[in-house]
Design goal:
Strand content: 15-25%
Radius of gyration: 17 Å
Number of domains: 1
Distance between the termini: 7 Å
CATH architecture: Alpha-Beta Complex
Structural class: alpha+beta
Number of strands: 8
Length: 203
């Protein structure tokens, strides 16, 4: 039985969500940083799914060379804004430069949508999760969370584009939700729960 899952991210906000969602899996869950992996991966896929697989395979190769057995998970997620031709899309993390703060990115997107009515501010978060099993088998899941872009930055609980993304059912941004409600509705939560089911079958 595999006792370890390594998630290909160094994002602490993301790891907090992942651990909360996968808490009932009887596995140690480590970030790639906690697993002692430093890797500069070229995410050159054309879809979220392709990029998630690229990341998971790269980390799995490193673990295999070290003689370690683990399930490697990776996600690729981003924001699609319909009015902006689905920008920033797969370039969400790199939008305006990787080192640009999300406060600046969020302010820029709000500015680009200035004067656009609510009905045309539709957007979604997309998340693809890939798993590479120790035998090389690859599993993938994809999920979305539909909403719209707000007119101001609001909320302290999320990260990334959460403070500008309004979830209609709660009429607030995902950065204003508590972790439990956010995980229940989020694209990452849905994709991870679907992956958890696939892993339980595979194991």
């Amino acid at each position: 039985m595999i006792k370890k899952i390594v998630f290909a991210t160094g994002n602490e906000g993301k790891m907090k969500e992942i651990r909360a969602i996968m808490a009932d899996m009887k596995c140690e869950i480590l970030s790639q940083k906690e697993a002692g992996i430093v890797a500069d991966i070229d995410e050159n896929g054309t879809t979220f799914e392709e990029n998630a697989v690229i990341k998971a395979k790269a980390i799995a190769d490193i673990l295999t060379k070290r003689g370690e057995k683990a399930i490697v998970l990776a996600d690729d997620s981003g924001l699609e804004i319909d009015y902006l031709n689905k920008e920033p899309g797969i370039y969400s993390a790199r939008y305006m430069g990787e080192d640009t703060s999300y406060d600046v990115k969020n302010a820029n997107l709000i500015e680009r949508l200035q004067g656009v009515e609510d009905a045309k501010r539709t957007a979604r978060f997309v998340c693809a999760v890939a798993a590479v099993m120790p035998d090389g088998q690859v599993l993938t899941t994809v999920a979305t969370m539909e909403g719209r872009i707000g007119c101001e930055i609001k909320g302290e609980n999320g990260f990334g584009y959460d403070p500008i993304f309004i979830l209609e059912e709660y009429n607030c941004t995902t950065a204003e939700l508590d972790m439990e409600r956010k995980n229940a509705a989020s694209h990452r939560g849905k994709a991870l729960r679907a992956m958890k089911k696939k892993l339980e079958i595979a194991l």
